Amino acid sequence: MAAAEDTNSNVTQNPSGSDAPKLSDLLDRGWKLFEEVDTTNEPSSSNPVQVKVKRAIMQLEEATRMVNQLNLFSRNEALEEISTTDLKYLLLPALLGALTMKQVNPNKRLEYVQAARVYFIDFLKRCKDYDICSFQLPKDCENTADTPTEEQSSPAVPMPMSQPDLIAMATQRQAKIERFKQRKDTEAKLSEIKGLVESGSADEDVVRDFYLLHVRRWITLAIEEIDSINVEIEILKRMELFKQSAPQPSPPKRPPMKPFILTKDAMQAKVFGAGYPSLPTMTVDDWYDQHRRQGCLPDQGIPRSTNGDAEEEERAERERKEENDDEEALQKARDWDDWKDTHRRGYGNRKNMG
After folding, report:
1. What is the distance between the alpha carbons of residues 56 and 100, in angstroms, rounded to a whole number?
2. In angstroms, how far is CA 347 from the centroid of its own chain?
3. pLDDT of residue 264
4. Predicted local confidence at residue 244, as pLDDT
5. What is the pLDDT of residue 6?
6. Which phi and psi (to 5°) does residue 50 adopt?
């Protein structure tokens, strides 16, 4: 009977046309993908898991749009007025919040946890409107802007704990223990009737209890998730402020050049070196050789005078002719040798007497 009603609901609750996926199919696919990624042994950051997370979010977001178009839920109606086949769609924001928390992009972590918090708060408020079970909304559920107050953003000052603070902490601890026990009891009841509902042999009352148990289980999970999200948002915002206020690293400084004394020769270098052992010394010749190797001398790259080149070429040409037994060159060489034999060195030098 429940399966037949669900099938009829799929046909009527499809405002997008015959080719669009049915509302119940979208929820079932997204819910199944969530259970796969929630129970897998693979790392949550692995590509297969993240692909399933994105696919599940797309399926459930489309289902949420269809639920809003159909106006399935209203604050003016009671829980008994919701049909059994529509009860499971109350879980849409809770599943979307849990899937959003499983996304792992570090640069968008604050965006993810804030979006998940909005989903969980929306789920809890709707359950509160229908009075599905007795629970207390988190104190900050009315403020969904996630903007820290002046008291929250200012540095915490250690204050001695008063008696009301201790009582509030003890109350919160006891509430967590009670929620944990309720969740365990709910999960035990779910495991008992899950087989009947999935096989299609359960009557409508059992199917209705099955979905209400799921909603009650997610109420406890959503409250716990909001508590942890509030802490994580505070940490992420403080980290962001720390990054913005942290000084930018300055460029590395070049090491200072070591001074040295420029001397005329090696002897003077020894004298200065003995007097100033901490300062290295360098002779002019050493300085010249070093700069010549580096090509830093002023006359390097400037062509020499052409006079020297002409004399060098003339001497080479004369030697080449002598080597080739040129008669004229050989005769000139012999005459020059004979003249030097009969005339002493400096003969005919009238300007420099003697």
Report:
1. 10
2. 95
3. 57
4. 83
5. 47
6. -65, -35
Locate 248 and state its tokens. 């930018």
Instruction: Tell me the β-bridge partners of 263.
Output: 283
Q: Two tokens at 251?
A: 């460029």
Interatomic CA distance for residues 94 and 210, integer angstroms: 16
Cβ neighbors of 26 (< 8 A, separation 6 or more) are 59, 60, 62, 63, 66
Q: What gap in Å lies between CA 348 and CA 354, rounded to an integer?
A: 10
Do the Cβ atoms of 269 and 250 come closer than 8 Å?
Answer: no
166-194 burial by CB neighbour count: b if 16+ within 10 A, else e?
eeeeeeeeeeeeebeebbeebeeebeeee
Coil vs helix vs strand at 281: strand
Q: Which two tokens stand for residue 114?
A: 């804030």
What is the Cα–Cα distance from 249 to 242, expressed in whole angstroms? Answer: 14
Q: How many CA atoms lie within 13 A of 264 on its CB side?
A: 2
Query: In whole angstroms, what is the distance from residue 328 CA to residue 322 CA?
Result: 9
- pLDDT beneath 70, residues of the chain: 1-20, 140-166, 168-172, 174, 256-282, 297-309, 321-326, 346-354
Mind listing the pLDDT tens digit for each residue in 210-239? 999 999 999 999 999 999 999 999 999 999
In sequence order, what are the residues at sequence separation of 6 or more whose Cβ sits closer than 8 angstroms to the Cβ of residue 267? none
